[in-house]
Amino acid sequence: MASPSDNIFIAPVGISTAMGMLSLGLKGETHEQVHSILHFKDFVNASSKYEIMTIHNLFRKLTHRLFRRNFGYTLRSVNDLYIQKQFPILNDFKTKVKEYYFAEAQAADFSDPAFISKTNNHILKLTKGLIKDALENIDPATEMMILNCIYFKGSWVNKFPTEMTHNHNFRLNEREVVKVSMMQTKGSFLATNDQELDCDVLQLEYVGGISMLIVVPHKLSGMKTLETQLTPQVVERWQKSMTNRTREVLLPKFKLEKNYNLVEALQSMGITALFDKSSNMTGISDQKIVIDLFKHQGTITVNEEGTQAAAVTTVGFMPLTTQVRFNVDRPFLFLVYEHRTSCLLFMGKVANPTKS
Question: pLDDT band for position 7 (50/70/90)?
Answer without folding.
Answer: very high
